[in-house]
Amino acid sequence: MVAAVTQTKYEVKDLALAPQGKQRIEWAAREMPVIKQIRERFAQEKPLAGIRLVACCHVTTETANLAITLQAGGADALLIASNPLSTQDDVAACLVAEYGIPVYAIKGEDNETYHRHVQIALDHKPNIIIDDGSDVVATLIQERQDQLSDIIGTTEETTTGIVRLQAMFKDGVLTFPAMNVNDAETKHFFDNRYGTGQSTLDGIIRATNVLLAGKTVVVAGYGWCGKGVAMRARGLGSSVIVTEINPVRAIEAAMDGFRVMPMSEAASQGDLFVTVTGNKHVIRPEHFEAMKDGAMVCNSGHFDIEIDLKSLGAKATEVKEVRNFTQQYQMPNGKSIVVLGEGRLVNLAAAEGHPSAVMDMSFANQALACEYLVKNKDSLQPGLHSIPTEVDQEIAALKLAAMGIKIDTLTSEQIEYINSWTVGT
């Protein structure tokens, strides 16, 4: 352990937290059988040997299991935090002390520290970047043009990051392949829906200890994350309103049994507001003005820009901490607005993020996407690439096997039928 520390550069809160972090990493691993099988194969085959890899992720127990898997595959990996409130300090300490992985992450780090860590990550001269939100890739393109020739590719698993990568490619600045992990079926169907759904409400309840039954919950955005939050809030007895800009998703929300209306109408009705859009200023001053006294607002999208907190803070006569991760803004009209987790990802700011069982599939996609980039580095063109269907299917099959679930297989007659156009009804 001492040898690993002396050879490893790092910035973490306290290395003495490492034993606690090790326990928690191992506990998470119990629920991550797919990544375990990939790690065992990686340890034998070393598909990432000689690859310098940077990961900008939430530094959690689940991410630790991914980092250990990448290291087992031969990668020279360095890890930084993608969000200042999502770092688990004991986990960061353990990765340094037990595994010799350079980690630059401290819970509560300020923006200046975060951006400095992004620069440290790029100083590692990565060949592959695992990015949550695409800040590292954006900084590389804007400030480190001389390093672009070193890049094999990047992987991205957040909706926000995919939107940014699409904009980069449209502008002609994304000159290397990017694996769209977010749109893999074994990622967004499960991580976004079940992971975000459960962990968001977990963060809200830990921060406030409020009873959600009987409350009106407004969910901004009905993508896979919004669907999960709305589903779980209804399951706990809440009356759920959905706001949307996409007419197809709005129809879907209505047919799923939720009330659908603009935020301008929902603002006066909600007791709790959850933003999951990936866009900017979804809740604005006019919405705050219309809210009930004591209304609670939080965000479960990647960046802390979905709620216009700057405007709220400028208008407030007083801001005070009323519980951990819970701030009350006193307004001139006598009402108060309660903000959870500083408007950052509430599931990671006030809780522990997604359960490890669902991150097992997401991080299996990340690990296999890195392997895919290396194996196909001479043929992949710049731009966004989907996770191959066979990889998605492999991950799902491994997960089912680990859960003890068996499914049917096609008979030879059925295979012939679905591949033929001559056989009708």
* Principal-axes shape call: globular
Question: In CATH, what is the homologous superfamily of the largest domain?
Answer: Adenosylhomocysteinase-like
SS elements, strand count: 15
Mean pLDDT equals 95
Global Rg:
22 Å
Q: What is the total number of structural domains?
A: 2
Please give the count of helices: 18
CATH architecture assignment name of the largest domain: 3-Layer(aba) Sandwich
Strand content: 15-25%
State the CATH class of the largest domain.
Alpha Beta
Q: Span between N and C termini?
A: 68 Å
Largest sheet: 8 strands, mixed
Looking at the structure, the CATH topology of the largest domain is Rossmann fold
Please tell me about this protein's structure:
May play a key role in the regulation of the intracellular concentration of adenosylhomocysteine. It comes from Stanieria cyanosphaera (strain ATCC 29371 / PCC 7437). Pathway: Amino-acid biosynthesis; L-homocysteine biosynthesis; L-homocysteine from S-adenosyl-L-homocysteine: step 1/1. This protein is of the alpha/beta class and 425 residues long. The chain folds into two domains: 2-187 and 353-402, Rossmann fold (3-Layer(aba) Sandwich), CATH 3.40.50; 194-349, Rossmann fold (3-Layer(aba) Sandwich), CATH 3.40.50. The chain is built from 18 helices and 15 strands. The protein has helices at residues 2-7, 18-29, 33-45, 61-72, 89-99, 111-123, 135-143, 159-170, 185-208, 224-235, 247-255, 263-266, 285-290, 309-315, 346-349, 356-375, 389-402, 412-418; strands spanning 52-57, 76-81, 103-104, 128-131, 153-156, 177-180, 216-220, 239-243, 259-260, 272-275, 295-299, 318-323, 326-330, 336-340, 383-386. The protein has an eight-stranded mixed β-sheet, with helices on one face. It has a seven-stranded parallel β-sheet with strand order 3-2-1-4-5-6-15, sandwiched between helices. It is globular and about 65 Å long. The termini are far apart.
